[in-house]
Amino acid sequence: MRRERLEDLRGLIDTRLDALAPMADQTHPLLSQAVRYALLAPGKRLRPTLALLAAEQFGGKAAAALDPGCAIEMVHAASLILDDLPCMDDATLRRGQPAVHRRFGEDVAVLAAVALLNEAYGVIARADALPAKARLRLVRTLSEAVGFDGLVAGQLKDLRERRGVAGAAGLHELNRQKTGVLFIAAVEAGAVAGGATGATLAAAQAFAEHLGSAFQILDDLVDATATRAQAGKDVGQDAGKPTLVSLLGLDAARAEMSDRLSLALQSLDPGHRDGPLATFTDALFAPYRQAA
Amino acid sequence: MRRERLEDLRGLIDTRLDALAPMADQTHPLLSQAVRYALLAPGKRLRPTLALLAAEQFGGKAAAALDPGCAIEMVHAASLILDDLPCMDDATLRRGQPAVHRRFGEDVAVLAAVALLNEAYGVIARADALPAKARLRLVRTLSEAVGFDGLVAGQLKDLRERRGVAGAAGLHELNRQKTGVLFIAAVEAGAVAGGATGATLAAAQAFAEHLGSAFQILDDLVDATATRAQAGKDVGQDAGKPTLVSLLGLDAARAEMSDRLSLALQSLDPGHRDGPLATFTDALFAPYRQAA
């Protein structure tokens, strides 16, 4: 994956997110400001990038997955706003800027998160580059990713029971709910847009699940080792909470991350192991694999 | 509308809401408890009732609108949880019981509200009594009802600017965002399920918008005149905030409510003015019209 190609995709995503976020004359001005602040802040745009690359990998055009990918980024942005609230992680810094509730107040932060989640469904419903059945399938996939066995449940478990989560299996399950589900939804959105079905689609989902595991370990490594400025968000938030890093130690966690990456790539059909998803994954993790 | 008929519909709705709400083994147990507490608490179930009656009025079966109607009730329940939060109205009582955050904590309350909104979309996507295109249309309708020009924007305006909203026109617009949008979505869901299109559908939407206006005035009258025990929620919450009641006085507000009801009924096609929607509306407001 050439660096320029990724930057092109990134530009495409940022331009579309900007167009999808409401301007001040389309809603309450404070809501527009808070939504734009949260959604357009510098971020890796991993989830929409995965959606675009998956569409290409399975024979479609990246553009068909653009709106679904942006919808998933909206959900991700919403989840970050909520995680940072005083009644949750009580974080101060996110994506290199004050958390949304610190800048706009708690009421605006909660409403901006709700509006972003809600708008994600509108964006998918209007994504007419996809047939009605594919859009409906994505609504269902996203609802399952967010809901009672997804992000929301994972966040509650993290808040109320993290210290009681014992062993690697429990932590992997928590990571699936907190991170894996949106990776899977993003890759699925792209794969469906690209025309994948059956075993090919299942392989794409398995790839995304392992990639999500690897990425969560990476996130825990950053929390344990980076400075606040390097990470652009509060670090050391997990101190005292079990993570795979605290459970296994830095070296074994890095090895586990590499194992998950290998599993991710092995999940793809042999014909897809040199495709856009694999190349992107290699590029994303390269700096951290060398450190290990 | 015979009283028994309404009680039958109410039973159908409550049974379905109970089945749609997650049990403790399907999610985090606290999330299950909070969602069930909020969603299954005694309520009027106005929105799903309107959906079922609209389906019948336009020639369909009530059952086709059951899941979309329940989805809208989920959104309504979510909005009540959020409105009651300490960073918003800071209410203590709702539907005759402690507000969700008082009972389960703020973190659980926020997550339960998000989960309910999110699940509404899953319920609509899975509502296979409706064709894919109708379901997709409802996803779009609901997203517009909740989002940047709907409930969320209305709640923010109410919190941050209510005291600055001047005149009846501004208050009617606020009431449309806070109440009208879900009435319209409910009637539209039922009308679409019943096969309404074109001018008939537009008439149903106009009916719902006027009905929503009338209902919001009723709600303001209750806030101004009922005791906390009668209302089953905190009252006097609007003291100091302009409402149509404070602006016009009790008598003129009751007259305005009656005018809105007349407009609602006149919006329906002549052939539908004795149908289920009109009969239900008459029954719902009868006690309050006599008081006026």
Brief sketch in words of this structure:
2 copies of one chain form a homodimer. By secondary structure, the first copy, chain A, is an all-alpha fold. In chain A, about 70% of the residues lie in helices and about 0% in strands.
Descriptive account of the structure:
- The structure is a homodimer of 292-residue chains.
- By secondary structure, chain A is mainly α.
- Chain A has a single domain, classed as Farnesyl Diphosphate Synthase.
- Chain A has helices spanning 3-20, 29-40, 46-57, 66-84, 100-104, 106-126, 132-146, 151-161, 167-193, 198-225, 228-231, 244-248, 250-267, 276-291; strands at 93-94, 97-98.
- Chain A has a two-stranded antiparallel ribbon.
- In chain A, strand 1 and strand 2 (97-98) form a beta hairpin.
- The longest helix of chain A has 28 residues, at 198-225.
- At the A-B interface, helix 2, helix 6, helix 7 and helix 8 of A face helix 2, helix 6, helix 7 and helix 8 of B.
